[in-house]
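Tutorial, part two.
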Amino acid sequence: MFDKASGILVDASSGPHSRELAEGTVTRGQRLVVQGCLYAGRAGTVSLGVDVVPGQGQSAPARPAATPPAARSALPSGRTTYRQLYEYQYELKDLARTHPSLVTSITLPYLTAEGREVSGVEVATAPARTEDGKPVMLTLGLHHASEWPSGEIAMEWAYELISGYRTDPRIHALVRGTRSIIVPVVNPDGFAVSRAAPPRGDFSRFDYEDKRKNCQTADSPPQDRTGPCRANPAGRIRGVDLNRNYAGFWGGAGASPVWDDDHYRGSAPFSEPETRNVRSLVSTRQVTDLVSLHTYGNLVVRPPGSNDTQPPLDEPAYRALGDRLASHNGYRSEPARELYEATGMTEDWSYWATGGFGLTLEIGPRTAHPPYADGVVAEYTGTAPAAGAGKGGNRAALLEMLADTADPAAHATLTGTAPRGYRLRLHKTFRTPTSPVRRPDGSQGPPLEVADTLDSTLLAPGGGFTWSVNPSTRPYVAGRYGRRAQAPVQPTVLLGHPPDLPPVNTDYPTNPAADRVPFTVEGPPRADNGRMTVSVNWRSRRTEWDLYVLDPAGKTVGESVVGDTDSQQVVLFDPPPGRYTAVVVDFQQADPAAPDAWTGRVDFRSPLPTVHGPTEAYTLTCQDLGGHRVGSTEVTVGRGQRVDVGEVCGGGGRTVRAPVRGRTGGR
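Running the prediction step on this input gives:
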């Protein structure tokens, strides 16, 4: 769609199939030209529908698409500006068209609320042969609409693999031995709104550029369901935070049950088509490694996100993997809950349900979409001012993850023999509870039971086969990593605030005004603290105190800055002994004439020992060329193990088990 007078682009769409949706903000009396371009095929006509609806909360037309300057950047694509949605759409399908021996285009099964398709690419030798048994790495961008670098870096990763296959021996070997699935825009509806919005920068209800969520309307009050996603009575806050909508510990702390909160979790686990799309990929493709790209914080984070969840048995290997990525991008490697508690996140479902390692990269230090040169070019290539300057940046971090995907020690392997064209199917069905479900009124209901089915296939090449798979025992039931206590737990410490309240401060730490209360964490032989909880409480939810915890060196090691609550809480695990400081900031007072003071305490819990759970098996079946089942085997296999299932298509039922070893996840 173009403005007729100036020729300026209003919006465009270049999806993979026959559904296109272009939306733009226009003014009364403006004349438009709508142009359709035949990309492929023989269709001689196309159906066109045009709807004009009153805008609400958006007073200026959307900014036109920027024209990239001629100079190339150091990125694999040479890109110098943030892409629009239609550019992602076009480039993804064009990569498949121009590199058919390495790239195939994919479209995920569920349409978004606005009817858009979600597309991506697979990069591999013989890319269309998706049932080849190679280990799979899945890269996801733009769960959150305003986090533009996440989509850019996913897109550049696709270019990297394609160009590097021909020019870089390491990438060539990795591409030959793996399969990479890349979905740069998980949330196209929300991204289309954020990317095209006029900049305001005030994070208000109608600051659409800062939209985080998707465009679902069903959970909003009736009066807020009208109007399009980019101009409606609820503004940017309508929709669901997709990275709180997965089943992993859904409904717990760190996600909101209230529809107009930026972290609204949705009405149920996987209520949103975008998260069901990712679920479909992970459940059917034996994704052995997953990267979810976000901004910001300079972090490599791994499960768990919940403070009430003990680390998995894989914790040593998982931590080592995160540390290896962090050595390249210069980020801090830590469990997700050490940033802040969150539930319903991508890898807190994918890892606990499938055993495939999943990491989130929080790109950049301090804003959702900084200037392109800083937030994308420098962060990807590892140049100043990025934290990974001189270390390889996120390019090297993603290559490290792909190397882990290729490493047989990081997943399980099945071998055997089967006639050419026979289809092997690996299947498992199970139910997993969510967290106890927090309700909007602050009460708590029982957990929900979520049913998952893992169902992947291998098309036998004839003779011997090798199939890279995830462990048969999912981490949720395998057990938990821990240690035995070396001393008693430390008693509770009460925090007393100074007699006078500090001034209201909305600019901490630039403005240091706050209550500062020191306290001591003891260590062996006096105490052994496996978990420390620092909490502050007050009367009114319209008051807001923010909490920061500083370690003995004065470094912030935890923070809680949640609004619309009467408490804040910071949890640290295995805190080193020393003199800590609770910094309590008076962000807002409900009634300045009647100060709402805080009370605080520090509680400790002993470390929890390692525990082991039951062992689970896959059901491995074989179908002949006519689709008839001709063999079935129960297979138990662990991470790093290799099991020969023999002639699985020979008929008869039997059980194949690998000897159990490496149960703590070390490799």
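Residues 660-667 have pLDDT under 50 and may be disordered. In part three we will examine how such features are distributed along the chain.
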